[in-house]
Each structure stands twice: as C-alpha cells, then as structure tokens.
Amino acid sequence: MTTRITRTEKLDLRLTAEAKHTLAAAAQAQRRSLSEFVLESALGRAEEALADRRVFQLPPEKWEAFVAALDAPPRDLPRLRKLLNEPSVFSDDNRS
C-alpha cells in the first residue's frame, strides 16, 4: 500500500517555451508528469548542493585527528591577539 503525501505548497516558475519543451520531453521519457519530473529533479540537485553541509564523513584515523584538533588548546597568535586588543575604528576611543 502506498502512502499518499499531501502537497500544500506551490512554486511558480517562469521559463522559456524551449525550456518547458525540454522538461516536458524529459518527463515524458521517464513516464512522469512534468510537475513530478521538475520536483524530483530540483530536490535531487538541492540534496547534492546541501550534502557537504549535512554529512561529514572521514575515515576513522582522520576522524581521530579531527577530534584531537578540536580538543587541542588554542594556539597563541600574537598578531591576532594584538589586533583584537586594539581599539576598533568604529569605537568611541578613536574619536578626536
């Protein structure tokens, strides 16, 4: 038994006649409706675009090195410390 999903959101799209024809031909080749084809294609590309932001995979030895780097105490960076201790150009301390 298939579960029916209720779609409640709508997305409008402006495109050229040529683009619509290409999408319709591709949808027909896969025996899908144009809406199904466009939605599945767009969701597939969205998943690809977001994959590196959702999943972080490393082999075990690199994972251990990564965790060790996160757990290590911060390095002393004198130039950065000096920069952060100087008054900002936006602070009241620099007004004449």
| Radius of gyration (Å) | 26 Å
Tally of strands: 0
Largest sheet: none
Low-pLDDT stretches: none
Helix share, percent:
55-70%
- What is the N-to-C succession of helices and strands? HHHH
Large-scale geometry: elongated
Which class do the helix and strand fractions yield?
mainly alpha
Whole-number average pLDDT?
90
Strand content: under 5%
Separation, N- and C-terminal Cα atoms: 77 Å
Q: Count of DSSP helices?
A: 4
Can you tag this structure with a few keywords?
elongated; mainly alpha; 96 residues
Describe the protein.
- This protein has 96 residues and is an all-alpha fold.
- Helix content is 56%, strand content 0%.
- The chain contains 4 helices and no strands.
- Helix 1 crosses helix 2.
Short description, anyone?
The chain is mainly alpha-helical and 96 residues long. It has 4 helices and no strands.
Topology:
Elements: H1 17-29, H2 34-54, H3 60-71, H4 78-85
Helix pairs in contact: 1-2
